[in-house]
Amino acid sequence: MALKCVAIDDEPLALELIKTYVARFPGLQLVQVFEDALSGAEYLKQNPVDLLFVDVNMPDITGVELVRSLVNSPMIIFTTAYRNYAFESYELQAIDYLLKPIDFTRFTAAVEKAVDFHKYKNSIQESTNDESIYVYSEYKMIKILLRDIEYIESMGDYLKIYLTNNDKPTLTLMTMKKVLEKLPQDQFARIHRSFIVALNKIKSIHNRKVNLANAELPIGDAYSSFINQQKG
């Protein structure tokens, strides 16, 4: 089944180019195009799609703001004439970031990444023991099994995800709030402004500290209720 795509760009010529490029891929179906970002955002709220091509600089709202407003975001490929939004695209875990004028070879590489990621996500039959999240790390999307997570540490704009089967933590650009939205509440808890722990990895709780197999983490004052919850 072809990936359903939407393109949003306030430049008609840019949209025509994307239409021409997408038409060369039988695995893509361009269902709508919009020159108006607000109309495009409204359509996306009502109609789920697989892949969004969106310009960054638009007069009403930016492509970055548009993506942030979506509750269920599709895969994103940003298109822009400016390089200074690369950080935002990385933060939003975009599949790719294409600079205008867009070369077809570069466009093809971005589409292939999107297709591969879509196949990867949908080829796995998830079971309870194989629940997972996907994070962007080292310029690629990585699948992390929830059962492997021991704890997560906030490092400013980044997170370090510590795994029981890997001495080196996975580094990803993401906020604590965002990762908590991905994690099941009955399996993980925030114990400090800088730490989230996997509940089944806790060995003991003593003197306002959580002891894990490979770490001892403090319980913050704002999260002291966590101790009572574990007792209950």
TrEMBL record:
GO MF, any single term: DNA binding
InterPro entries attached to this UniProt entry: CheY-like_superfamily (IPR011006), LytR-like (IPR046947), LytTR_DNA-bd_dom (IPR007492), Sig_transdc_resp-reg_receiver (IPR001789)
Pfam families on file: LytTR (PF04397), Response_reg (PF00072)
4-aspartylphosphate found at: 55
Domain annotation Response regulatory: ranges: 4-115
SMART domains: LytTR, REC
Domain HTH LytTR-type: 133-205
Superkingdom in the source lineage: Bacteria
Keywords of this entry: DNA-binding, Phosphoprotein
Protein name: LytTR family DNA-binding domain-containing protein
